[in-house]
C-alpha cells in the first residue's frame, strides 16, 4: 500500500462527475455488491484519503485542541470507562482483532450507532501514535474505534510528538 500522503491518483484524481458516481455507488446497500473488488478498491482509496487528511491535521494543529466529532466528550468517557488500561500510544493488533477484543469492542461500537454517522465504516488506524501511516504501522478499524482511540490520543498527549516534529521540521 502506498503511504497515504503520496499523490498517486486516488479520489483526488477523479473528476467531479466520476466522484459523484463513486459517492452514489457507495450509498447503495452492501448487498447490492457481493464481493465486487472495485468497491473494495474505492473503500481503500476513501480510507487512505481520510488517513492523509487526519495526519495532516494532527501535523499542523495542536492535537489537544482538536474536536473530531460533536460527541468527543461522550466517546472519550465511555471509551476510558470500558477500556481503562488500553495502551493507546502503541496498539497491538490483538487489542482490536482477537476474539476477546472483538467481543468487548462490539457493544462499545453499538452504543454509537445513532450518535456517529457511519460508525461502523472501515478506516485506517496507526498502531504507533508517534509514527505516520505506513504498511507496517496501519491496521483496519471501524470509524468509532478510530474516533475513540484518536480522541484519547489527542487528549492524553500521544499525538503531540507528530505535531511537534512537523512544527520543528524534524523528520518523523
TrEMBL record:
InterPro entries: PBDC1-like_dom_sf (IPR023139), PBDC1_metazoa/fungi (IPR008476), Polysacc_synth_dom (IPR021148). This is Polysaccharide biosynthesis domain containing 1. It comes from the Eukaryota. The gene is PBDC1. Residues 39-162 form the Polysaccharide biosynthesis domain. One of its GO terms (cellular component) is cytoplasm. It comes from Leptobrachium leishanense. Coiled coil: none annotated.
